Amino acid sequence: MSITAYEGQYEGEAAIWLKAGRYEAAILPGIGGNLICFRDTENGYRFLHEPGAEEMEAFKASPGIHGIPVLFPPNRYEDGKFPWNGQTYQLPVNEVATGNHLHGFLHTAAWEVEEFGSGKTESFVTVFIKVDENHPSYQYLPFKYTMKLRYTLGEGGLSQQVQVHNDGDDVMPCLLAFHTAINAPFAPGSTPQDYLVKATIGNRWELNDRMLPTGKFQELEPGEAQLRDEGVNPYFAPMDNHYTAVAQNGRNRMELTDSKAGVTLVYDVGTSYKQWMIWNNGASEQFFCPEPQINLVNAPMVDLPADEIGLFSLKPGEYWEESSRLYVK
């Protein structure tokens, strides 16, 4: 099996490419540390929603629906307010339709490459971002931290490890999600109707007209119950829904099966992700986003137990880390 890692380009942007046998992947350090593609070159599978050459400018302006964007802090915050440890920080209101802050700061920021290389069984790359008083986002959330992403590629698919370290002197929020964009169809010759998706969802959070949780649950619709149990077409209805994550058989995962190709893509995420967002771009039949998320949307403004809503914190010097994997079975 040929295994390598090298500097290259992706549609004109600096990239680190990983190759291992039939698999290849690329990360864009300068655009949010986004793992922009994961492919099976033997079968022509493109598992992630990639931007084409004509989409690159739009992608760079708003890199939220391609690859695996890093959201920190993720999703929406009412009026941009972020109460924390006796203070309220003001995030920019960047979603005019709802009057909320959306998706944090790291998916648009430049990351740095720490190392890349290859061994006998895997190729790998580690990228990092260090936030301190010199980083533009510090004016909104004045905490010092370092985040690292390490991707490895091998026979077992694509592995992701994320680590956050509190570099500062204050207790900091650790709220994170990945806006992972999955192609359906991912196989040439297949159609959207050939696909079924399952996910380890629990309860559906009720959202108000500003897409913020009310703290109450809604009854699952029949299609959502199928999503949890036997599987449903990913475009059975327009989805922009928020769920609790409930591990099944000890695992928190999304499984996407192509019945025509006889292949299942598994997105196995860690159990630290207490919530799912599932968005399918208005049931567009192109791609959908199963988004593993640590915290409830707007968690600092919701009066529920911190552990229940994933309102995680890190004391000075502490680490948080979690791993996920995309693979085929």
TrEMBL record:
GO terms, biological process: carbohydrate metabolic process
Gene Ontology terms for molecular function: carbohydrate binding; isomerase activity
InterPro entries from the UniProt entry: Aldose_1/G6P_1-epimerase, Gal_mutarotase_sf_dom, GH-type_carb-bd
A Pfam family reported for this protein in Swiss-Prot or TrEMBL: Aldose_epim
This protein's name: Aldose epimerase
Organism, as annotated: Paenibacillus etheri
Organism phylogeny: Bacteria, Bacillati, Bacillota, Bacilli, Bacillales
